[in-house]
Write a structure and sequence with these properties.
single chain, Rossmann fold, 2 domains, 4-stranded mixed beta sheet, two-stranded parallel ribbon, binds S-adenosylmethionine
């Protein structure tokens, strides 16, 4: 298992959490948009990353390239709001972003912990911090993955966001 991210602290945390897997797990600092190496895997799993890169299609193409012929891909990509509840949720993130925009990272963390507690603050921090949050439709994602050689593309959850699985044929 190879875990990749551009953030050293994210990789350190992942490495702590995967200690029990010993040398079967490795950790690599990579920019997904510049990831040219040829190695490929039976399964690639990318959760909540490609839509933050500034080049969502390029990032999906590079993750897709890592999947072997006959292998599988899982992607979580932001979708557009559809229900009233979706709009309320996105609006609350916008309001929070606006409220916290002048704070440093540490101050933002403290303010969120104070308001929501340790457990909930993590999700809020994650939701309001990235400056790039591209939204995609299922048809455009399915079209892109088909062009990249994937088949059996399906959503695994009924949610605003796309939790997709696909197979490289
Ligand atoms: C919302 S977090 C998701 C992290 C993790 N996948 C998870 O589910 O907890 C987004 C992650 O995307 C990473 N990221 C953003 N742009 C990237 C890029 N160009 N190359 C590699 N990682 C990137 C960030 O460093 C961050 O760790």
């Amino acid at each position: 298992m190879t875990a990749c991210d551009q953030s050293s602290s994210a990789l350190e945390r992942a490495s702590e959490l995967c200690k029990e897997f010993g040398e079967r797990a490795s950790f690599r600092k990579v920019d997904l948009l510049q990831w040219e190496e040829e190695e490929s895997y039976d399964f690639a799993f990318s959760f909540g990353v490609v839509h933050h890169t500034g080049n969502t299609y390029g990032a999906i193409r590079n993750v897709g390239r890592k999947v072997k012929q006959g292998g599988k891909l899982f992607l979580m990509v932001y979708g557009f709001p559809e229900t009233l509840q979706d709009f309320v949720e996105l609006n609350s993130y916008e309001e929070m972003r606006e409220r916290l925009r002048l704070l440093s990272c540490e101050e933002k963390k403290r303010a969120l912990i104070e308001q929501f507690g340790e457990h909930e603050a993590h999700g809020w921090f994650d939701a309001v911090s990235p400056r790039i949050n591209d939204l995609l439709t299922f048809p455009e994602l399915a079209g892109l993955l088909t062009r990249l050689g994937f088949r059996g593309i399906r959503r695994t959850m009924n949610n605003r966001n796309h939790h997709l699985i696909a197979e490289k044929s």
